[in-house]
Structures are given as C-alpha cells and as structure tokens.
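forwarding from the other thread:

> can someone predict this with 4'-deoxy-4'-aminopyridoxal-5'-phosphate?

sure thing
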Amino acid sequence: MSTAQKPTMEFKSSLDIAKIREDFPVLKREVNGHPLVYLDNAATTQKPQAVIDALDNYYSQYNSNVHRGIHRLSQEATDAYEAAREKVRLFLGARDIKEVIFTRGVTEGINLVAFSFGEKFVSEGDEILITEMEHHSNIVPWQLMCERKGATLQVVPINERGELRMDKLEEMLTERTKLLSVVHVSNALGSVNPIGEIVEMAHAKGAKVLVDGAQAAPHLPIDVQALDCDFYAISSHKVFGPTGIGALYGKRELLEEMPPYQGGGDMIELVSFERTTWNELPYKFEAGTPNIADGIAFGAALDYFRKLDSKALVDYENELLTYATESISDLPGIRFIGTAENKASVLGFVVDGIHAHDLGAILDMEGVAVRVGHHCAQPVMRHFEIPGSVRASFAFYNSREDVDRFSAALHKAVEIHKGDDVAKDRDIFDTSAETIQETQQRIVDKFSSYDNWEERYQAIIDLGQQLPPVPEEVKQEKFIVRGCQSTVYLKAEMEGDRVMFKAGSNAMIVNGLIAILLQVYSNRTTDEVVNTPPEFIQKLGLSENLTQGRANGLAAMIEQIKLYAYALKMTRQSGR
Ligand code: PMP
C-alpha cells in the first residue's frame, strides 16, 4: 500500500501562518466532515475579513452612485472608490492614476485592449503574437480582433518543461508584429515568464506588449514602470479581493490615442445627437455605473496584502511548492505538468491510468479542494497530450499541514484506483440467469452492505475497472451522451431480441456507474428496458455524495439508454 511519506524538509519561513489563517473565515469550515484544505487559489483566492467588512460597510453605511452626486453619501462613495484606484496604482507601480482603468477582471482588460488598440493600430497584414501557454482569455479576444481587422495570430511555442521558447519568440517578433500579449505566470503550468526581457525584445521590433498578470499579482511584486510593458491586466479575485472587478494598466500616451471600448454614462464629456466627446482618462474606458462596492473592497484587499512582507510570502510559497512536489513525487505513475526552472505556486500533474476527475473527486471527499480539467488552457493540455490535469495551487495562508492532508488524500486516491484486488473472475455483465428486477435487487443488496460513502465509492471504482474498454467504433462524436461531465460514449444494437449496450467513459467513477447500468439494462428485451424505471438507483445511497454534475450525467445516461431501446423497438415494429 502506498501511504504518504512526509518529506523531512525544514521550512525556513518565519511567517505566522496560523495567525494569518485567522483572517480568512472560510478556512474554518468543514467539507465532507474534514477541515477544508483549499488548494484552488489559481482559480480564485479566499477573502480576508477586512475585504468582507469593506463590502458590508459600503452597503450598510454609504451605498450610493459615484462621480455625479452632490450629496454626502455619493461623495463618500466616490472618495472611497477613487482611493481604491490609487491603491491599485501603487500596487502596480504605475506613474499616473489616469493609467488605471477599472474592469471586470483580466478578461475584460484584454478584450478592451484587443478591441480598442485593434481599432486604432491594427490593419490587414499585421501580426499579433501570443504564446502556447495562454489562458483562453488571452487567446480568443485576439482571434476575434484578427478576424475583424484581417490580421494574423501567431503563437510562440513552449518547451517540454512548460517554458516559453525565447529563441522562437526572437524569430517570430518582426516589424509586422503590432502587439505581443503574454502571460506573466501561467495558471496551468506555474511558469514565470521573464517579462522585462520579453518587453525589451518586443519594443526593439516596435511591438507593444500586454501582460496577463492574473496569476502574477498574488505571487510576485509587480512594477509596470520597471517592466516597461504597455498594458498589464489583473483581477481582484485572484488577489484576495471580490470577483467582478479588476484593473487594466495602460501607458497614458497609448490610452489617450485609443478609442473608447464601450459607450454610455460616465465615459462622456458632452453628448449631442451630432457629436459626443469623451471624458478624460481613465473614465473614457469606464462606461456606466461601475462596480463600486467591489472596487472599494478590491482596495481593502490590496491594503491587506501590502501589509504582509511580500518577499517572505514569495519565499514561503516556494517552500510550500517544493514540499508538496516532494510529498507526492513517490506516487506510482505520477507525471508533473509544468516543471519550469522559474515557477510560482502551481503544482500540476497527472497520474498514469487515473482520470484527473477521479482524483479530484476523492480529494474532495477528503475535504481537499483542487482544480481538475484543462484550466481554460486547452492548447497547453494539447501540448502535453493530456485531456486535463490536476492542479493544486497555493496561497500564503496554506499550511504545511494542508500539504500533508493533500498528499495523504492523493495517495489514498491512487490506492483506491489501483484495482489490484478487484475480483475479475466472474463476468458481472453476464446477467442472463437473472431477471431485470433480480439484477437490480442484487445491486441494491450489495450497496446496502456498505457502511459509508468511501466503501460505496471503492465499489463503484472496482465495477468501473471491470468494464471492458469501449470499442473504437463506439468512440465517435455521434455516440457521445450529451449532459455528462466526462466524455461518455454509448451505443446500442440488437442481438436477436436483446438490446446490447456498449459504453464507456474516460473517468473511472463514471465507468462504475455505467457498469451498474449495463448490468441492469444490457442484454434485455426492448420492452424490459423501456418499462423498467431506474428507481433502484435511489436505493444505492449515492445521491448525497455524487456531485450535481455526476448526478446529471447519470440521469442523461439513463435517458439515453431508454431512448435507444425505444427507438430500436419502434424500428422493429415498423419492420425496418
Ligand atoms: N489569465 C490567467 C492566467 C488566468 O489564470 C485567468 C483566470 N483563471 C484569467 C486570465 C482570466 O481572469 P478572469 O476570469 O478573472 O477574467
């Protein structure tokens, strides 16, 4: 049995993590009977009480609209909102407050530049450069812009460690390159790009540079003037602030030249039906009532963050990453995705033969929150030829114990999926000696003998391991069952008077559910399939622990099974 061995590594950090954790109320909660271990910080970070209080205070004390009110509350709101902008300016190291535009987040910041910069500066035959490690939000806006303007999108590749190919970047930057948009820290790989050097290379060719700072903001000190980048986008929710707000830094002279992104209130100076003039920066780019409360709370998050020792945070997070990497590197079949020399607190990996969703589900059972899937970076997954990975991402409030719990849960997950001791001596799918009701009852009896979800889960995984692989001819688009979280193929055909189902998925837990369904519904007459309701499923004790996504998938599979049987019955009756 592979149990987790704790590495002996000494932490040098003097940060008082227990005290810091006190500031984050959510870290006190339990999930599935275990204290929460939150390792999904790259998706969004948790919020300190100071941020929650700032939101509460705004709504309970001075909620009102900004910039146009003469009354007291409006002035207070305006002052607090503009003070938040100043905090963002400080955080980014921008020269001028006019260079700080509030957005909904990085996605909107990039869309703003893609639209507005594109309108002004990009024309047919120009090139936009991005990289293979970009988040979808730094790919799709450029595709849309290139389509609109007749420009071409070029993609700088990464190497096997997940580092940017600087040699290729040098080659691909040409006089035609209008703009390079590049991530500072990759959310899927953790790779840290040498932005200063990249900006210098791009500027030498006359290209402007946008930096996607979504993942850098919580982990690295940022200084847009030192980096000399032209645009820098961040999201508040990745830096311990609320969702729905972020900021775009842009060099003033560029922003002055760019046309507005959206029209509406606040972004105008004078409006007549003949002609409208724009407000000054940054309001030219902020149409409509802004996200006032979240903007103010974003400022509170930056205040909180700034009080911590940023150098100590970076060092501590690096220690956590090293410790976590060591803790799980003994797992059989583990492959790390993203092993860049310069890396920030993201630990991505796959385990041979076990679907990322299966690992994520067991970690969740143990109260450990990680992200599984493609992390909105499908090209990265394609590069490593994997459908998705597991990603544990750390923040300074994560403790050494969090990593131990994560490692123990992961070792357990791998153990559950090993399948060495699964009884494969009996063909569980040969149910010809049972009626459909007897099969249902047998499965219900079996599941009633389990004491808890862990035993039921193990039983489902064992069943999944007995499911024969899906034949190649079934792995076709037309046999995919819609509405399932994982890819599920299902095909039905008649053999004599019996409907035979062939099915399978890329997640073992789903294969287990399929194995249950096939025992009941495969090798039956069409009437038996159509007329036997799936009520037995309710008696298996799965509903509490199966995620909503999985439960929906199960319902979709049952529906498809019934539809197939009904269609085959109709075909038979019409003699076709
Ligand atoms: N870029 C990167 C690298 C990210 O990690 C994310 C968020 N996962 C985004 C862009 C998009 O940020 P948002 O959803 O806050 O707009």
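The mean pLDDT is 94. thats all i got for now
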